[in-house]
Amino acid sequence: MQATTSVFMVRPTRFTFNTETAHSNHFQGFMAGLDDSAIQARAFEEFDAMVARLRGHGVQVLVFEDTAEPHTPDAVFPNNWGTFHPDGRALLYPMCAPNRRAERRPDILEVLGQQFSLREVVDLSSHEQQGRFLEGTGSIIFDHLHHVAYACLSARTEQTLFADVCTRLLGYRPVAFHAYDALRQEIYHTNVMMCVGTEFAVICLESITDTAERTAVVTSLTGTGHEIIAISLEQVARFAGNMLELRSAAGTTLLAMSQSAYDALTPAQRHVLGQYAELLPLAIPTIETIGGGSARCMLAEVFLPATAQAAV
């Protein structure tokens, strides 16, 4: 299935502006008048409220505490370092920024292995030594139903590694392209400009400036029956592309996004999306601004099979 009922999140213990990622993530910013303690307090408040809201809508949320050492300022975005698949495999990804690599935590894998059936861990992190990066579902947007994967290429998403992971490890058809923001800078992660749900796709087509690449993406999406909801570069800047389809335990389809993303959508776009899912806006302005990532980035999907004990 495309949407999971289970995710895990990492509660940020030392949430700060990450200077090691700022050169490629142009969505990061500062908040005037707030010192580190105020930023941390707001990050905790926003994180806890988001967890409560997701759980209140029937999503299973596992919460792990960030570690004080080593300092991992972006630990709140765990979707970048691992994907967890229905065949019982976990893939660990090579990360561009050195201070993000410690986010890959064996203790989290151990807990997941106790609650789900985790039969194999495929560690791709050795590619970091060759300067080849692929940052999980930041880099890759999966269409699980049709075995297609989309990626906008950047310093954090290397084309040959993307193609190899898709074809050799996962059996997915890779669709690669280039995407740029309003200042003609590379968009650092695919998931800020694109979201693929079961029957719809939210995408900033104007960010794909190469006509052939844009046509290939549209052809792929329409070929799998997705209704395309096109968003603008201005909406991308407010994280309107950073959404994730989820399912509640009762089977309700949800579309998680930040409050900023929700506010950026037009009434017509909300109406179309509302036909496919219940829209679930989450207020995370501090995490978005300082971290340069949004609601989807905070959610690591768990597609691993339930253990026999959990199934009972």
Automatic annotation (TrEMBL):
<dbReference type="Pfam" id="PF19420">
    <property type="entry name" value="DDAH_eukar"/>
</dbReference>
<keyword id="KW-0808">Transferase</keyword>
<protein>
    <submittedName>
        <fullName>Amidinotransferase</fullName>
    </submittedName>
</protein>
<dbReference type="InterPro" id="IPR014541">
    <property type="entry name" value="Amdntrnsf_FN0238"/>
</dbReference>
<dbReference type="GO" id="GO:0016740">
    <property type="term" value="F:transferase activity"/>
</dbReference>
